[in-house]
Structures
1.
Amino acid sequence: SCLLKPANKSVIIQFKMMSLGGSASTSLNKTVTAKYMSIPQPKDKVRVLYVWIDGTGENVRCKNRTVDFIPKDPSQLPTWNYDGSSTYQAEGSNSDVYLHPVRIYKDPFLLGDNKIVLCDTYKYNKKPTESNNRAACLETMNKVKQLEPWFGIEQEYTLLDIDRHPFGWPKNGFPGPQGPYYCGVGVDKVYGRDIVESHYTACLYAGVQICGTNAEVMPAQWEFQVGPGAGIKAADDLWMARYLLHRVAEDYGVIVTFDPKPMEGDWNGAGAHTNFSTKTCGWLPMEGDWNGAGAHTNFSTKAMREDGGITEIEKAIDKLSRHHVRHIKAYDPKQGKDNERRLTGRHETSSIHDFSAGVANRGTSIRIPRGVAEEKKGYLEDRRPSSNCDPYSVCEVLVRTCCLEN
Ligand code: ADP
Ligand code: MN
Ligand code: MN
Ligand code: MN
Ligand code: MN
């Protein structure tokens, strides 16, 4: 048969649930919605959507509240709480988790003075929750302020149809092999550009420092980039951009996954592909291998950006080479388990087991972009972080290794 081999069992379970009717909200009459959304909002009321990271460390949650002033700074917004026992963050008997507003964005869905506020989360004892890596990251960034660290993150992701099959892929087979899709154009090359453009627009309006987008190597896979942002800004922007992407895709009835290897490449292993035929599949791939998804993290300090900064970049790479395992543990939410599926040494990745670096080489852990090597200053690209990484953990460990040596 031509069934895809799902990346893991939870995908199968979700597949079954989704086929019972996961697209309910997309099928609602949007004209009726427009009628209500055109009702004028009272001038003295502002809607604020609190967004936070849940206990998985990779999914985001949100809830609304009304305030009667226009918030300019997160400190003006009330701390709030939610039921942490419903987000894998607390026991039912002691379930209140605190929300601390940390960065305000304009709401691209409601417009006007309405806001979306990114929050971090604290337990009953005022300590950060286990999935709040922002608190520690901010502390580390404050220690190295004078070095002016900048980050730019390339977020790759995959669009899935409501049945969790990659969006736009033939239902009974596969698209042709990788090659024509990366930065492609045309209905047979790229799937879902409406979502990408809508998301781009929403990010710019919101105040997310999105700096670009492109179609990726695997069809239905895309990338956007944020940055370069100083300190914690790029990581905040990345989380808000992820939230906005889920919301935009919700409007289109499409699912966004940040899984680092949504289509595992071994479904045609052991010669099984010889059983495929164009009669049963419609489309016959030459190779059953599909790229995974990463979150390449570009990093620089003031010294790296100055003339001759390449020597600083080389020093940082030398330090990184001595802490490979520590970085791998920080580069996905499962201490390296997720990245094991992606960092195979194939599909423009380096092996999870080895550290390597090179100029313009996309099969290494660290890449020095060609332009940086030529100008002898700029930044380095760490290609190891997984698409579902927590950018707070990634940025923090980069600073620890390269700037603090602990
Ligand atoms: P590629 O696909 O070639 O690896 P992209 O254009 O997708 O590169 O992404 C480049 C990233 O590098 C962007 O996120 C950008 O913000 C970031 N960047 C550019 N200059 C710097 C810098 N000096 N320090 C840190 N990040 C940077
Ligand atoms: Mn309630
Ligand atoms: Mn890129
Ligand atoms: Mn990419
Ligand atoms: Mn890159």
2.
Amino acid sequence: MSQTNDCIFCKIINGDIPSAKVYEDDQVYAFLDISQVTKGHTLVIPKQHAKDIYDTPEDVAKNLFSRVPKLANAIKEAYQPVGINILNNNGEQAGQSVFHLHIHLIPRYGEEDGFG
Ligand code: 5GP
Ligand code: ZN
């Protein structure tokens, strides 16, 4: 897999930085966000480094996005949320802070997380 040395998410994939793994296969890695917006907040990333959606080859995107329904269902089963937000930030002004493509899966619980 093509990876960059100074990317924290590449380091997470390699195991150089510890993470709470949710799911892994040959193409993608999913782990809990270190700063949980809500309980179960998960990030899913391609193992091949791409800095954002503009930098992502179609086959990498296909593999990444194809895992989302399965992961959403796993989160639904594990955490029993009432809904889930799925989002992807591209560019600093759009809220991207880590420049390795990632999809946020944020389970929603209604009133207790402020969105009731
Ligand atoms: P962004 O703001 O780029 O859309 O999302 C980056 C996410 O990565 C943030 O929600 C942030 O909490 C998470 N994050 C940053 N560094 C680490 C880390 O070292 N470990 C984990 N698990 N999450 C991280
Ligand atoms: Zn990377």
